[in-house]
Amino acid sequence: MRRLLGLLLLAALTACSTLTPSSTPAPAPVTETQPPAPPTATQLAVRSLRIWLPPQFDPNADTPAASLLRARLDAFTVAHPGLTLEVRIKGSKDEVGLLEALSLTRSVAPSALPDLVALSRADLEAAALKGMVHPLEGLTNQLADPDWYPYARQLGQVQKTAYGLPFAGDMLAVAYRSAQFEIPPSAWADLFVDRHSLSIDTSDSNSLVLLSLYLSTGTPLVDDANHPTLDEAALVRVLQALKSARLTAVGSGDAAWNAFEDGRADLTVAWSSRSLLDPPSASALMPLPSLDGTPFTLARGWVWALAGSNPQTDPLAAELAEWLTAGDFLAQWDQALGYLPPRPNALKTLDPRGALDAVSQSAQVMPANDLVLTVGPVFQTALGRILNGESPEVVAKESVEALK
Predict the structure, then answer these.
(1) 367/1 Cα distance (integer angstroms)
(2) pTM confidence score
(3) For the chain, give me the number of helices (H) and strands (E)?
(4) Do 67 and 23 touch, CB atoms closer than 8 A?
(5) What is the pLDDT of residue 22?
(6) Fold of 170-299+361-403
(7) % of the chain at pLDDT higher than 70
(8) Is the torsion defined by CA of 165, 167, 172, 174 positive or negative?
(9) Environment class of residue 90 by beta-carbon count within 10 Å: exposed (0-12), middle (13-18) or buried (19+)?
(10) How many CB atoms lie within 10 A of CB 40?
């Protein structure tokens, strides 16, 4: 075990790659309406910031998104003479995951922790609850800016404390062909007019479609003692709606998307990132309708968080996070990545008809990780039983009991 920890520590300390100019032509720097303030004495004393990123955000990759990020980071160093940005890519297939790497490094080599780290919402929640990232209070008031979608503020907060600045959003939405609806329906039953069919992934252990419909009724997933619970009447309504819908049940997310692409299903539920990078021809996205006509879309996303062991680096790391979440930069970078900007003004440039704005306005962040892991399998079993023809009333009653 000591030898394994030693090898992991050696890998963590030697995997650093200092960000340097690349031979790949970088796009023109994004115009920044608010240039960085002059560095303070503390910031001048910081000569290096360490950044951890997962592979999909590697600024030295050969992609348009990488070129944009590389240019943005280079511009920050120009504004801070003498500063070096050290970029480490974590979570590749040959390494431990990014969150696990954070935990291990914190235990055996805290001085090697990243000053700034890109975390998914699920990882941010886990890291915050374990004390692996720092609150942003006193370092930045960026989340108070009115130019955020409501879900974006949720992305950056854990238990009402700000821990991260959002830079990318991903919504559970309905993909459809533009000619199918003049106005996208807001009620679940209206999806199936003209005998439209919707492909659904029955292998999803979180059963996100059922989860979204249940939450859209306004029914909580926890009781007064904060224990997971299900309301039988609300669940009956959801299961009845699913039973009466025209669903094409398939065994994976890829299969559900393929059924939509090749015309075996008229609609499908998918994360927006699936559609935005390679959208089928004449297709569009709409919020996932609710039972009562108020769209309710689940959201996930990515944030910048502070995880360094030296408090002196936190102010400059927070400034870099602000620099990387400016709206004019996100308008370009998120589009290149295939994500939705979490800022309304940034989304306008790629959403002239307002369809993606409607998705973003209806979005609510996924429930807590442990809660989804608890109720998801119950919902998945319930969905399978409904698709097999069982009674919604019987399935709902037994699902409520299964959670007790």
Answers:
(1) 36
(2) 0.87
(3) 16, 13
(4) no
(5) 35
(6) D-Maltodextrin-Binding Protein; domain 2 (3.40.190)
(7) 88
(8) positive
(9) buried
(10) 12
